[in-house]
Amino acid sequence: MRRNTSASSRTESNDQGEPITEAKPRQNVDSLNFLSVLFMRRKLIILSVCSLVLASFLLTKGFDNTSEQSDNWHGKDPVKKGENSDIDPSNKEKTPVPQASDNKADIKRDGHFQRTPNLLWWTFEGGRISNNINCGEIECLSTVDRALRDHDDTKVFIFYGTGVELADLPLPRRKHDLWFLTHEESPKNNDHLFSHPEIMTLFNYTSTFKRQSDYPIPTQWLPNLSYLKSRQFLKSTATKNEFQKSDNLAPILYVQSDCNTCSDRDSYVKMLQQHIKVDSYGQCLHNKDMPDHLQFKDSMAGMHHNDFFELTSRYKFTLAMENAICDDYITEKVWRPLHLGSVPILFSSPKIKDFLPTNNSGILIEDFERVEDLAAFIKRLNEDDEEYNKYLSFKNSNGITNIDLVRHMRDREWGQNEHGQHKKYNNHFSAFECFACKIAHRHLHNIEKKLPLKPSIASVEHYGCPPPKRFDSNGKHIVDDKRWTEPFLYSKYMAKAFRYSYDKGVILKEKYLKQQAKYLRSKDGE
């Protein structure tokens, strides 16, 4: 008998070649053996695949954190003029990325790991230090360490306006860098540089006194509404009248030591003094001395002394005149006399009425055709106690009738509430940092997920002010003044020269910027 052992046939034949079928039990045993071998092979294959996946995972985790973060970026950096290619991974080891020693690598939120963005203050106010900031569910590293400029997590650069210099900007600018500008002062503090679109459109987000900015702070100098309603230093009108007689006080107070500013305020006061008595305690138009301990010899600290508040509150009127005239630029010069109960004579934001506690809590010089008309009005009001008291009606309970001001102060998320308790943020700088932190997280997320990037672009409406003017002989602020238009024009053409080179991808030193600015100005005939 011959046995056929082929895998496809399980039969035997006798000597005559007739097939003999195997018994059924033998078939079951062979089938079971075949299935067992098949299942064992499949298990070995699955185990091998799992081992390969695990090994790959372990190898991937072996890379350093910097390389892992760098691989997540898909942006293009315009490092050189005309360059627009993807970042070459082979360069990672040649240029090590600085690490933030106090920065957390990731934060876990909603089951996912997210990187912690750096907010790099390129220019800053005061003694700012690096520290982690908590903004609810997210964190950021607020830092002044310029060594982190090229860090993968540094996409937000914050600039404090006064310190910005065209020769000291983080250039060349990478494709995904966002620039934030914050400043509570007027553009005058940086030679009107931010009054020109060529500079303002460099920035993506802003926080300024203007309501058009991304994070507006027009009431930065107003602690809360209780500050306006305070009666701590308030004198009755009868008492003020008595001080005018007993202490020989003028009806009007003027205290300024920053003289000859671009608003030309001293010129107006000088004209006003020809028609009504004005006591001037500061260095500008000085005609009356402060007590020794309140002198402004070395600092302006005396202006925060209770004795200074006591003196100011004795005056029925106070000249509140800004050093620069811009929409929504309102400083302590306006809020202090309101706090002390002295009616302000205002030369301030053209939109100042939007922020006054009542319709008649201030006197605007622009409402008078001539200086002598204002003087005559003040004299009449000084003699009419009933009319004068109407200007202080906001000191009464529920006396603030400006609903927009009440709503603005209620919704403001920084500073103090009406009970002197701190709100979400202590000050507008902290609030702006968290505003920037939220944008930074969204920006990094969109980059990593290759989502569309649509950053905001600032405009001159976010901060800029018109060219300075001076007063004419009637007290109208309408005359061009070369003393102040010259610095304005100088910064205008420096801005144009810088922007021209910036758009070309060329970094010019200050010397060549000035030459280019001079050429552009001569070309325009200004």
TrEMBL record:
Fucosyltransferase C-terminal domain residues: 252-408
Localization in the cell: Endomembrane system; Golgi apparatus, Golgi stack membrane
Keyword Cell membrane on entry: no
Key words of the record: Glycoprotein, Glycosyltransferase, Golgi apparatus, Membrane, Signal-anchor, Transferase, Transmembrane, Transmembrane helix
GO-annotated cellular components: Golgi cisterna membrane
Entry EC number(s): 2.4.1.-
Membrane topology per record: Single-pass type II membrane protein
Biased composition (Basic and acidic residues): 71-95
Gene3D superfamilies, A to Z: Glycosyl transferase family 10, C-terminal domain
Domain Fucosyltransferase N-terminal: start-end pairs: 117-218
Pfam families: Glyco_tran_10_N, Glyco_transf_10
Molecular function as annotated in GO: alpha-(1->3)-fucosyltransferase activity
Pathway assigned to this chain's UniProt record: Protein modification; protein glycosylation
Polar residues composition bias: residue spans: 1-16
Disordered, as annotated region: 1-24, 68-106
Family: Belongs to the glycosyltransferase 10 family.
Name of this chain's protein: Fucosyltransferase
